[in-house]
Amino acid sequence: xxxxxxxxxxxxxxxxxxxxxxxxxxxxxxxxxxxxxxxxxxxxxxxxxxxxxxxxxxxxxxxxxxxxxxxxxxxxxxxxxxxxxxxxxxxxxxxxxxxxxxxxxxxxxxxxxxxxxxxxxxxxxxxxxxxxxxxxxxxxxxxxxxxxxxxxxxxxxxxxx
Length: 161
Fold this sequence. Notes:
Layout: E1 2-5, H1 11-24, H2 36-43, E2 49-54, E3 60-68, E4 77-84, H3 93-107, E5 112-119, H4 123-131, E6 135-146, E7 150-160
Parallel strand pairs: 4-5
Antiparallel strand pairs: 1-2, 2-3, 3-4, 5-7, 6-7
């Protein structure tokens, strides 16, 4: 598996990875009926550096974006969003993308990374970020309307680079 910058011709593969996450509505604050065009525009926004994780056969197994968390005085802190294809869960894709994103953020001069809204019930993600040294620095009670669990907390997670 390797991680590389996304290309224009990855649009179909990106949608194949993003759509199940969007439709499930369990981990991102995106409209569950979001269109392909809107999802790709969101993920590939001009401020986002987008990457894909591929297996040795070239299949896209996941994607992440990297951006500045804020402008101006907060631009030294990176922010990322990650999605793994459902069929690739448990194969180390998220771990590979996390490691790559930390390296890429350092190379781009970021001094810290912050995740603004980690849904607390996404325990796989929380454990992964903790294994990379992220700490929960804030908890937003009931901030996420989970489709089956109701209102659940969202976490703010942070680490220095």
